Give the backbone structure.
Amino acid sequence: MRFTVSLLAPLLGAAFAAAANVPRVISQNHGTIAAPATGAVATSGGSFPFSYLDSNWCEGGYTPITVWLLDHAPTTASLNSTGQFTDAKYYFGPFLIGNFGLPPIGPTLPPPSTLTMPDLSGYPSGSAMYVAVVETANNCPPGNQPAQYGMTSTQMVTA
């Protein structure tokens, strides 16, 4: 038994080290922000329509998305290794889209039809704000693939 453990320990250690160093994988695949429309007005504390049509490029039962507000045009280079923006103005939250007619599951809900804008008092009227969605694909074929992140955004304008 000791011989088996001594042989497996370095292999398991290498496997965990490799998993910890998995690079960020950016995909050109992503869904579409159907609302808000480009150029929509953003007001502090005001609600605005939100709709995202996921691409589900890995054909998963559920598609995780995160929704962000940035005060600059987002790029995939701005995403960290876990698909998050570290320089976002506001994080609307994680959401889970059921595909193929699947019902909501777990503590993560589907995206709401409206979102509430945070305080924008530091931004002059006419400033550009960007709603960005990061779509995550897990377990893409052929299996055991790292998470892949696709990103899209739309520009809003402060009132």
About this structure: The helical segments are 2-20. The longest strand covers residues 148-158. The radius of gyration is 19 Å. The chain is about 10% helix and 35% strand.
